[in-house]
Design goal:
The protein is mainly alpha-helical. Helix content is 49%, strand content 0%.
């Protein structure tokens, strides 16, 4: 299911708009919104452009409301899901961070946080388990909506548990306890999961009038 941007509270502090926001992010009534037409390469070639997608930029002097920010970010994530190949790793982490802030601020679950989690999990890096764990535990809705098997993206059950055991991370015990409760998966199982969820979202996005559903936990 897809969260309605109207559920968000307009209580964010206002801050000066980033110069790029003033230039391209103001809604244009004469055509499609810019974020929907810019390709993934435009966002990744200059990290300063990511300011446009920061949650804190949802209310700024350019008058960018939260629902407009939500649509911009959704358009970027949807475009990335439709683009073959992994996205820039730092950009994927940034997008998931913004999704976590949004979901902590709002009630409900949006497919966009799973899209961001998939883009990060596709890099298959063991240390990303902490960010994926933060995403899953961001709210009751993300706990219920996100596939918990994404936690094994960095090495399946065996590799992920070994990494967490040796990490010394402050969340080590909490995460380890949860990992041990999940059904065992292999690297191949994770590869299949990532491919299935990306293919599902891509198929839905190509069908007008359909809304993505969350994955199983």
């Amino acid at each position: 299911m897809s969260i309605s941007p109207g559920v968000a509270s307009p209580c964010l502090r206002r801050r000066p708009a980033h110069p790029v926001i003033r230039e391209i992010a103001i809604p244009d009534e004469t055509g499609a919104h810019t974020a929907n037409t810019l390709g993934p390469a435009w966002w990744t070639e200059d990290p300063e452009r990511w300011d446009l997608l920061q949650f804190e930029a949802a209310h700024d002097e350019a008058g960018l409301p939260l629902d407009r920010w939500w649509k911009d970010r959704r358009d970027v994530l949807d475009a990335l899901i439709l683009t073959p190949g992994p996205v820039d790793h730092d950009f994927a982490r940034f997008l998931l961070d913004q999704e976590m802030r949004f979901h902590r601020h709002c009630w409900g679950f949006s497919h966009t946080i799973e899209a961001a989690a998939l883009l990060l999990a596709e890099h298959r890096r063991p240390d990303d388990v902490w960010r994926l764990w933060q995403a899953i535990t961001a709210s009751f809705d993300t706990w219920c909506g996100l596939p918990h098997r994404l936690l094994f993206a960095g090495g399946g059950t065996t590799g992920t548990i070994a990494y967490v055991v040796g990490s010394g991370h402050e969340q080590q015990d909490n995460l380890l306890g949860h990992l041990q409760e999940l059904a065992e998966v292999t690297d191949d199982d994770v590869t299949t999961l990532l491919a299935q969820r990306r293919r599902y979202y891509a198929d839905v996005l190509r069908e007008p009038g359909t809304a993505p559903e969350s994955g199983d936990g």
